[in-house]
Amino acid sequence: MSDSIVAVPLDKAYRLLNHGPTVLVSARYNGVDNVMAAAWCCALDFSPPKLTLVLDKIAKTRELIEKSERFVIQIPTVALAEMTYQLGSESLYQYADKLQRAGVELLAMEGEDLPFVSGCSAWLSCRLIPEPHNQQTHDLFIAEVTAAWADSRVFKQGHWQFDQADPALRSLHYVAGGHFYAIGHEVIVNDNAASID
Amino acid sequence: MSDSIVAVPLDKAYRLLNHGPTVLVSARYNGVDNVMAAAWCCALDFSPPKLTLVLDKIAKTRELIEKSERFVIQIPTVALAEMTYQLGSESLYQYADKLQRAGVELLAMEGEDLPFVSGCSAWLSCRLIPEPHNQQTHDLFIAEVTAAWADSRVFKQGHWQFDQADPALRSLHYVAGGHFYAIGHEVIVNDNAASID
Question: Which residues of A touch B189 (CB under 8 A)?
Fold first, then answer.
């Protein structure tokens, strides 16, 4: 585990997702690890923190999550743009060595039996809240976030620090066809609220 | 209706939300219009396009949507940051003149009996798909997008053009406490896919 990775208090975990980044979803079941890219992941509640995630029925990661009921949401950086695109374009069903092909390096977090992707800016460990209707009808999965971490070079004291950090650590926001946007500059509306918050 | 507003084909509507912007939610019922800000709105399906939206029980807009089963998701710009923050901080229950206080100007779209907020970069007209369990348990609303429009100065030919447009037209991505980020620069991974797509 990198020296710059620090725990994020659970009541601040929603802030890791609030700005709408593209994420990587990883899961482990019965000795199989997989990672996929997803643009449709969204905060759902503050405390306990919950999130929604859309998983197509063709995704191997979905099968792993349905069986293990655990997964990790992590936030890839501009430096991982090619890897993120590749993880969203290929399936483990098609390539048994998908993770090696994309250059994924995994890291371990203490007490967590899940695959965490190295080089991301934040990680949320999630426990599925099974909802058969949502999963079958809408491909929609709901989960509780049980632990969170961030790279303190870009997220500290409960806030993203994109303008102060290396631009390679900015989050990615996918549109379509290999086109992402990086997150940009801060826009502060209410200095007073910011200092209180 | 501004000359620069053009219809977006429904199969491209998901792209308006894919990069995770903060949105404004507007609704109308029985002569009452309201607009609120929301960070938790996410694409759910491509065709027909659907989306999810989280609405707290304290929001007047939620009541209007539950009664009318219609609403608009629109994407505010950097130029509307203060208005967006104010629309997320005050309730119509508290201020009957909330929209005037925030400086909201409404525009009409042909054939739509809904309040559209002027100055946004895109608009999605939505029809609620009632799901009582999701609404009561998770404050989660699911809707089908029935029509979409964008400001062609910043979205055209199915793609955002943030790097070519006035920076004041960039989308907002909320974190907390009055802190937003503007969307930043394009990161293109796969030129070939981009040209096909």
Answer: 81-82, 84-85, 178-180
Q: Give the number of domains in chain A.
A: 1
ipTM: 0.95
| Residue with token string 């899961």 | A27
* CA gap B174, B70 in Å, rounded: 25
Helices (DSSP H) in chain B: which residue ranges?
Answer: 14-17, 60-68, 81-89, 98-102, 132-138, 191-196
Taking CA–CA distances from B159, the nearest residue in chain A reads A175
Query: pLDDT truncated to tens, each residue of chain B (197 aa)?
Result: 578 999 999 999 999 999 999 999 999 999 999 999 999 999 999 999 999 999 999 999 999 999 999 999 999 999 999 999 999 999 999 999 999 999 999 999 999 999 999 999 999 999 999 999 999 999 999 999 999 999 999 999 999 999 999 999 999 999 999 999 999 999 999 755 443 33
The answer to whether the CB of A51 falls within 8 A of the CB of A65 is: no
Which CATH number belongs to the domain containing residue B35 in this structure? 2.30.110.10
Q: How far is A77 from chain B (nearest CA, A)?
A: 11
CB contact under 8 A, B174 and A18: yes
3-state SS string over A82-120? HHHHHHHHCCCCCCCCHHHHHCCCEECCCCCCCCEECCC
Assess contact for B171 and A187: CB atoms under 8 A: no
A152 — phi, psi (to 5°)? -70, -5
User: In angstroms, rounded to a whole number, what is the distance separating the alpha carbons of residues A172 and A181?
Assistant: 6
Is the CB of residue B116 less than 8 Å from the CB of residue B123?
yes
Q: What gap in Å lies between CA B16 and CA B132, rounded to an integer?
A: 27
* Helices assigned H by DSSP within B28-80: 60-68
**DSSP-based three-state secondary structure for B120:** coil
Structural domain boundaries enclosing A146: 5-196
Q: How far apart are CA A149 and CA A22, in angstroms?
A: 17
Task: Judge contact between B129 and B50, C-beta under 8 A.
Answer: yes
